[in-house]
Specification:
Layout: H1 3-26, H2 32-42, H3 49-59, H4 65-86, E1 96-97, E2 100-101, H5 103-106, H6 109-127, H7 136-162, H8 170-180, H9 182-195, H10 200-227, H11 230-233, H12 239-242, H13 248-252, H14 254-271, H15 280-291
GO biological process, one term: terpenoid biosynthetic process
Protein name: Probable farnesyl diphosphate synthase
Family: Belongs to the FPP/GGPP synthase family.
């Protein structure tokens, strides 16, 4: 798949996800200021790569794009909630996200906390909606998968914060990153498998792919933090070093990090072997994770 085709596919599905989320949030019976903060934290930005993972994993089993859209949107709501909270003064204290003021900066920290809470809650309201999937057993399985992914993401955030005051070793860094960043990416692949009612082996290989994709995404992110500008990233560059974050780049250097990145991509591609050409978009996605510039 060419880079132009991949870029177009990412843009197209991002717009579909954006439209869905905008409609969903517009229908909320909630205070205007809260909905405004939720919209600020979840709309008008982001590549929506996690929903695309859901869509492409489900597509391996013949699930139509419109049948996986709501599930991917629920995953994206959890991701957006995590960013809103991650940017708070008591967390990373970031003032810019996706090229615009973060939610706490545009509103205030208290409302940002509540907006993040509401985005998280809405994700599970969406997954439990019969319109998302008619089979209650499938909906329950999706809820369980996203609950685990969200909890592990929080666990990873705790380890990340602890790593600011006591440097983590390599094993601990990999564990932290597999939770903080990798959990939701892995969950995206798993939710696609659930929608497609994959068998045990197929689901296991998609999970393995998701783990590798999550590692590739985070290592690339760590590299970009020291090689890209804030304007390029749409968020504050160099904050890992400024906040004394424990990363593979800080521990072993950029060259070693790139070797690990290449190994993660290779492992992810290997996990997709049984799916043949139907998995070409997933192959392109993990390569994109490794080579992206923002």
């Amino acid at each position: 798949m060419t880079q132009s085709l991949l870029s177009q596919a990412i843009a197209d599905y991002a717009q579909q996800t954006e439209t869905f989320l905008a409609s969903r949030l517009a229908g909320l019976a909630a205070p205007h200021r809260l909905v405004s903060a939720m919209r600020h934290g979840s709309l008008n930005g982001g590549k929506r790569l996690r929903p695309l993972l859901v869509r492409q994993s489900a597509a391996l089993f013949g699930v139509a794009p419109e049948k996986s859209l709501a599930t991917g949107a629920a995953l994206e709501l959890v991701h957006c909630y995590s960013l809103v909270h991650d940017d708070l003064p008591d967390m990373d204290n970031d003032e810019m996200r996706r090229g615009k003021p973060t939610v706490w900066k545009a509103f205030d920290p208290a409302l940002a906390i509540l907006a993040g809470d509401a985005l998280l809650t809405e994700a599970f309201a969406l997954l439990s909606d019969p319109q998302t999937h008619p089979d209650p057993a499938i909906r329950a399985e999706l809820v369980a998968a996203l609950s685990l992914g969200a909890r592990q993401m929080v666990e990873g955030q705790v380890l990340d914060i602890e790593g600011e005051t006591a440097a983590l070793d390599e094993e601990a860094i990999f564990k932290m990153q597999a939770l903080k960043t990798g959990a939701l990416i892995r969950t995206g692949a798993e939710m696609g498998a659930i929608l497609g009612q994959a068998d045990h082996k197929q689901r296991a290989e998609l999970l393995r792919y998701g783990v590798s994709a999550g590692l590739a995404f985070q290592i690339a992110d760590d590299i970009l933090d020291v090689t890209a500008s804030s304007a390029q990233l749409g968020k504050t560059a160099g904050k890992d070093a400024a906040q004394n974050k424990s990363t593979i780049v800080a521990l072993r250097g950029i060259d070693a990090a790139r070797e690990i990145l290449n190994g993660a991509v290779a492992q992810g591609l290997q996990a997709l072997e049984q799916f043949g050409t139907e998995a070409d978009m997933l192959r392109a996605l993990i390569r994109h994770f490794a080579t992206r510039e923002n």
